[in-house]
Amino acid sequence: MLVFKRERTHPEAVLYGLYLYWMGLSLRCVADALDPFVKRSHVAVWKWIQLFGKNTVFHRRRVTAFLVDETYIRIGEYDAWVWVAIEPIHRYILGVYLSRFRNIMVAEFFLRTLVRMYGRHVVYTDEGVWYPDA
């Protein structure tokens, strides 16, 4: 349960604003999206982010394993690789990473980030040559 000092904004509006921000909207876009419900500035949204932080509002789910895969995409004239980690039983996304290369160093960086966030777990891959050493 969220507790506010002065309760000027409903907790649902704050959670919705934080959700929109972490989905990729800018602070001003979040403030504009909240206008039909409550009039708040982008500075207020920024203060919510500073106050609650990512890990205090949204609780992490239980992770049984990492299912990691990468795919090639083209962004304009550039080649890129999207790395995705999924929890195989509950089927939610644990992490996404965009890189210009597909090699052992990128795989190791992505896996270390996952371990730092969720702890050590079994990793399932498509047996690419860049995974065993990572």
Order of helix and strand elements from N to C terminus: HHHEEEHE
User: How many discrete domains?
Assistant: 2
Mean pLDDT: 81
Taking strands numbered 1, 2, ... along the chain, how are they ordered across the largest sheet? Answer: 3-2-1-4
Q: What is the number of E strands?
A: 4
Cα-atom radius of gyration: 19 Å
Segments where pLDDT lies below 50 for 5+ residues?
Answer: none
Description:
The chain has four helices and four strands. The longest helix is centred in the middle third of the chain and has 16 residues, at 42-57. Strands 3-2-1-4 form a four-stranded mixed sheet, covered by helices on one side. Helix 1 packs antiparallel against helix 2. The chain has helices spanning 11-22, 27-34, 42-57, 104-118, and strands spanning 65-75, 78-87, 92-99, 122-124. It is elongated. Strand 1 and strand 2 form a beta hairpin. It is of the alpha+beta class. The chain folds into two domains: 11-57; 65-124.
List the helices and strands and how they pair.
Elements: H1 11-22, H2 27-34, H3 42-57, E1 65-75, E2 78-87, E3 92-99, H4 104-118, E4 122-124
Parallel strand pairs: 1-4
Antiparallel strand pairs: 1-2, 2-3
Task: Give a concise summary.
By secondary structure, this protein is of the alpha+beta class. 38% of the residues lie in helices and 24% in strands.
Which key phrases capture this entry?
134 residues; alpha+beta
